[in-house]
Amino acid sequence: MSFHRVKDEHHNTLLNSWEYTMMPGDIESRLSTLGFQPLRLLKNSRGRMTLLALYQNKRVIVKLGWGSGTSQITNEAQVLSVLHDMPIVPRLHTRLDLDDVKLVAIEYIPYKSLNAVGRLNPLKAVTAVFYTLASLVHIHGRGFAHCDLKPGNVIPVPKRGMVFIDFGVARPFDAAGFAAGTPGYTCPEALGGETPGSGCDLYSLAGIYYYLVTGLSPPRDPKEFAKALSLAPAPSSLLELFTQLVLDPEYRNSLDPLQLLKIVASFNPQLLVPHIVIDGVYKPLGYGEVSIGSRGVIRVDGRPVYLAVKRHVRGTSMYAYTDLVVFRRGEKLIVRSGESIDLEFNDLVLFDNHILYVFILPERP
Known about the structure:
By secondary structure, the chain is α+β, with helices and mostly antiparallel strands. It has 10 helices and 21 strands. The longest helix is centred in the middle third of the chain and has 20 residues, at 122-141. The protein folds into 3 domains: 25-107, Phosphorylase Kinase, domain 1 (2-Layer Sandwich), CATH 3.30.200; 114-271, Transferase(Phosphotransferase) domain 1 (Transferase(Phosphotransferase), domain 1); 288-358, no CATH class. It is 27% helix and 28% strand. It is globular and about 65 Å long. The two termini are 25 Å apart. β1 and β2 form a beta hairpin.
């Protein structure tokens, strides 16, 4: 995937006072007192507002909710507090309760979402869906469904892979009750007030693919969506897979996302080759048992194939290493100095807290 940094021409432009008229109280002065410098209004809806702001010399996304709009703000803060250690979600800077207003400050991701990539050919589109699903596996591994996956909520980011944003309606799999989302992308059971299963996000993948190859949002009705899918440019077997995800709730809720990832990989021969993605760059590996040590040396059947970037200690001739972190289906594994770990399909590896490796290691066909 290519990465496109957002050009922010309004970085130093303060919001006009009229843009606050829908908010209760003197929120502008309260934000200033708390150390926030509003830069730009991003979204303004009933009970909620999203701003780009400066906070502790960093650009952040500030979400505010009041009245009926507080529930999504509170929910997003709770979800991100559980997922915050994974690089595929935005970092949570702070959450505040300002009496009648709930506030959450989240990391600003300065890259364009899949919504802005334009129409892709089927091969590139299935690759984008593949890496989106690769991140989703880890979110599901922590026991959460996003419930509002769509192109605008998935951002390709260097060193991090596909980053998901907007967790306002995300929920644990074991949580009963209502979850909303975006018609056309969110499964009908969630929009209809039923408790969404784990397959609700898999339904969304079909919508993301449809958007990437057509430039159109998917129809809201599943039957109409399936009909539109049949006309989309793609191999017939891939369209059959997406159609089944759309029309068959039992199938999508029983499907293991990791197994689906392997199925999707089969539609791009390059993805079937054991490989790693380093800073967004595809690097093939040989077949065999793959391991990585705490110093970042990757080995295939004992043979070193890539040496990770080392951080030089300023003023010395030494290199510093920190613990290596492996995320396996959301589970966080720590590899201490001198240790190594055998890597598995779709492991996310964070080395030295700076470089993220996404390992996609299918078995030999």
